[in-house]
Amino acid sequence: MKTNRMLICTIVLLFTAAWIAPAQDTRDLMSMDLEDILNLQMTVFSVQGLTQRETPGVVTLISEEEIARSGARDLIDILRLVPGFDIGVDIQSAMSLGIRGIWAQEGKVLLMVDNMEMNEILYSCLALGGHIPVDMIRQIEIIRGPGTSFYGSNAELAVVNILTKNASALNGIETVLRGGRSVEGANHYSLSANFGKKRKDLRTKILMHFGQSVRSDRDYTDIYGTTVNMLDHADIRPVFCLAGIEYRGLKSDVLFDRYLYGQQDGLDVILDNPVNVSFNTLTVHTRYESPLGSRFTLTPGFMYLRQEPWKSADQTALENDFFYHEIAERFRGSLVLKGSPAVNFQLVAGADFIRDRARVSGDTPEDQFFSDGRSHIGNSRFCTYAQVFYTKGRTIPSVGIRYDRHNVCGDDILPWVGISQSAGPWTFKGLFGQTFRAPALENLDINPELEPEKTTTAEIEIGYQLKNNWICLLDIFNTMVRGPIVYYYDPESEEELYGNFGNLESSGIEIESRLRWKAGSLNLGYSYCRSDETIESYSVNGQNGLFLGFPAHKFALNGCVTLKPHLYLAPSAILTTKKFGYATLNLDDEYVTQSYGPALLVNVYLSHDRLFGRFLEGGIGIYNLTNDKNPAIQPYDSGHAPMSVLSREILVHLKYHWKW
pTM (2 decimals)? Predict the structure, then answer.
């Protein structure tokens, strides 16, 4: 009742404000043509900024306008439409990404918000699903493939950099309200409030998000046959706040993130009672960009990160023997040099020193301390890197190198080479790069003999632009992960362990077609990947070429049509072929695979950007229109059964933006 009253009051306030606010012109969100979009600059690849055509790598740029028109509820809605990206489930209901068939949960994909890392540092995991709010996003820049030389550990398979709305774009107050309900009775609501203002050289912003949703509203059955309905045991309650200030060359950001959710699925067997899990993060990032002569800028920076990942520390967790509470910290000092050492050359070079440490909380039982009964663990690493771009003419080559030294795992030298070339309507890109993932704090505590896993990727992209409003892209890739760090359980010692095992190899193609015209846009994507070499934990028995948990083929469609001025209809659809997961045990207590799919996920969103004036936008969306039951699967053999997705959901969205 209290929640319903809050929703009603907020809606009334928004409509009232829209009536009394003075009129103001707004940007026509459908006015940008394809040429404008392709010429938008991205910093995720070069730091200094290159367009999508110029970037010598396979990249995807998603604008604020595209996100708003799509009606995306969550970051997962956006990333699933990207070729090569998919979603899997881990223990304790945690959702994460698969990249080109390879499970990327533990340290194989780097997610950043305003260049602040979101991966937790105990295991390098990334928890998604109702977590990162979309209403504060200005732009998402994605590297589909290895991170460039200035990205370190975790940038093996992809880099996702989320840039939030800045003070100049906000120039006032923006409030966003969402409310909805699924056919099975799950409530969904969220409230975002964004403020930004620019005064001369001073820019300030405060972004806040509060919400509640449900992971699933259907039954979950573990591999032993026990069933529980998740409607009342899988709620998600995020709090995400970001404050930033800029004064001339000085920039400072503070991020607070509390991702709290309920779960009863545990590791493999359903728990007796629901247990709360939270990922708590506090990040402070400060840097100062100063001119160094006429050609260069030098930027020293410092980042402090404090996390409590996978936290389950209440009485219910103790009663279920599920207590976990460790506090991790990272201290990072950096120095970045960028500029033009000569005409038509861009240089990015730098150095980082990182110190990670963790300690058990004061309420942790002694039998859950670190190995050898220690209450503290830690490690450090130092790295240097350099990357050069030659930007004259239509051919842009790039070369880079990175050196990393880990105080436990030793050192690595990682090369990177890329090129982009355009000739009339044709574009060509090629790259060869090596990246790595260093073992995280908990990995090394469990097995100090672990070595970093190293990934080698080769890619070719060919593009052809038809007139000014249609472009087609073909990407061919091969990725090899050597010595992947794999979790496994030893039944004899009853211990959870990590080790380096064999190789993971994925190869395939990705095809995109982007069409944009005066009244709308249409994006079509297709991706295919096959397992050329994989370890047993990630393979499907009797199915050569498939990775566990992920389909070989994925088709994605999303578009937007202007029905009349300021009224837009945006459909999206994802079609995947069958995938395999472990759902039960046989009489010998061995995992038994089961096929799921094909699956079709359809969303439709209707929006208007000038409701009762020029300050209020609104929309209504239907998600999972077909009420598809295709589950998210654990992409390795650890005993967690597939988890059903949320049923059909109807969601209403209101946005009020007052500029002054």
Answer: 0.91
